[in-house]
Design a protein that fits this description.
Blueprint: H1 2-18, E1 23-29, H2 44-57, E2 61-66, H3 70-83, E3 89-95, E4 98-101, E5 104-107, H4 117-122, E6 125-126, H5 127-135, E7 140-146, E8 150-151, E9 166-167, E10 178-182, H6 199-207, H7 215-229, E11 237-240, E12 275-277, E13 288-291, E14 300-304, E15 309-316, E16 319-324, E17 329-333, E18 337-339, H8 351-364, H9 372-377, H10 396-411
Parallel strand pairs: 1-2, 1-3, 3-7, 7-10
Antiparallel strand pairs: 4-5, 5-6, 8-9, 10-11, 12-15, 12-18, 13-14, 15-16, 16-17
GO molecular function: cysteine-type endopeptidase activity
Pfam family, one: YARHG
Protein name: YARHG domain-containing protein
Length: about 425
């Protein structure tokens, strides 16, 4: 009986801890654009103000801004990111212009300009950067975009979009624990609206405060209202990898977690963990992703911070199949995995695997491989034609890693 009582108490403490995080929101609305090529959006700033007020009323700690430049947006993103903890629920709302360039989405600050893709990229804010900043700290993330795009800048636009060559924002894969909502479906343009708010934000303001609806139910009701209001011309959609139900408002503003008694964790393994996560860029995401497969688009299973001990189980090119000391198993990129323990005959110690690790750094930074071996191992798609290996812009940590791998190749007398 005493043993069962202790387990029940452990379950209550576990549930309480999981619910102890804060709810933090960053809300931005851009209406008045400096560049005359980009039409103003009268409702976007007001949409952001109303959303910020609603989120505050249901208990969110909100940082907000309107008509922000690129520098101001990045500053607020970094400011909010530093305040996040793993147990927090983080929400990002943006109303304004956004565009798709290639397969990436960009938020348009009020000081954006450009007549070519390279300039527009430099003067905009990549949406994936914002999402990565959130996912690097908080385990539950919500992104709501009342924006979509046309491309390029210099063509007419009539809604929350720029130009008319291509329509709709690119699909974004939400990492585990993330939810991304778009104001309209792919291939369509979101309307700014003729009243106080856009059709999408008007519906959000109506349904976000509902105490009994989780986030998915809120978005279902928002979609119904927008479809009715726009006669089916605008259909909000979302991409979700949430595991728990998230309630935004009222006394139900919580994350639903299992209330059953947790199964005791198995003992932490210690033998064979001869590697660890190391060499992460201090200005980057702050973690190495453990993924379900050997591709950057594979599902992220967990975040592994600097120093995470690993057992290497196998290798596929530049990817290692690894297991953590807590038992999680998946694939991780070998660029940020270092040997730390007693040497065992792991495949990464071969000349071929050292060559793969070293050249993967150059491939990631756009080097065009000329040799048959290089072209076979790495795709030259999007590489920097005419740029030599010595001209590839590597970070300090990347150069140090190239030197380490080269030295190891010399030791093994690799040719």
């Amino acid at each position: 009986m005493l043993h069962r009582l202790l387990l029940i108490l452990m379950g209550l403490v576990w549930a309480s801890t999981a619910l102890s995080g804060d709810r933090i929101a960053l809300v931005i609305g851009n209406s008045e654009y400096i560049n005359e090529q980009i039409n103003d959006l009268p409702n976007s700033a007001q949409d952001a103000k109303d959303i910020a007020q609603t989120l505050r009323s249901v208990g969110f700690r909100v940082t907000s801004g309107t008509d922000l430049t690129r520098a101001e947006i990045l500053m607020l993103v970094q400011q909010v990111q530093k305040s996040l903890k793993p147990e927090d629920v983080a929400l990002f709302y943006f109303a304004g212009h956004a565009i798709q360039l290639g397969s990436e989405n960009f938020l348009i600050p009020v000081d954006a300009y450009g007549t070519d893709e390279a300039t527009i990229r430099q003067r905009s804010v990549k949406l994936q950067t914002v999402l990565a900043e959130m996912e690097s700290r908080a385990d539950r993330n919500i992104v709501i975009l009342d924006a979509c795009r046309n491309n390029p800048f210099d063509l007419p636009n009539t809604g929350r979009a720029i130009g008319s060559v291509a329509r709709g924002l690119a699909k974004i894969d939400a990492g585990v624990g993330s939810f991304i909502a778009f104001s309209t479906q792919p291939g369509n343009v979101a309307l700014d609206g003729s009243g106080r708010n856009s059709p999408f934000t008007k519906a959000l303001l109506r349904h976000l405060p509902a105490q009994s609806d989780d986030l998915h139910e809120v978005m279902r009701k928002v979609r119904r209202d927008v479809v009715q209001q726009t006669n089916g011309t605008q259909v909000p959609w979302e991409n979700s990898s949430l595991i728990e139900r998230i309630y935004i408002a009222g006394s139900a503003a919580r994350v639903d977690i299992p209330q059953s008694i947790p199964t005791p964790l198995p003992p932490v393994e210690t033998d064979g963990f001869t590697h660890q996560v190391a060499g992460l860029d201090p200005n980057g995401d702050g973690f190495l992703a453990l993924r379900s497969g050997t591709a950057a688009a594979a599902t992220r299973l967990m975040k592994m911070p600097e120093g995470t001990r690993l057992k290497v189980l196998g290798q596929d090119g530049v990817w290692f199949n690894v297991r953590t000391q807590t038992g999680a198993q998946g694939w991780a990129h070998s660029n940020w995995i270092r040997f730390t323990g007693v040497r065992s005959p792991q495949p990464q110690e071969t000349c071929n695997s050292l060559w793969l690790q070293r050249n993967a750094i150059f491939a990631r930074n756009g080097y065009c491989f000329q040799s048959p071996r290089g072209r076979q191992a790495f795709s030259n798609q999007g590489c920097r034609i005419g740029v030599t290996a010595g001209q590839i812009p590597l970070s300090t940590s990347e150069r140090q890693e190239v030197q380490r791998l080269t030295a190891r190749e010399r030791t093994l007398q690799c040719r």
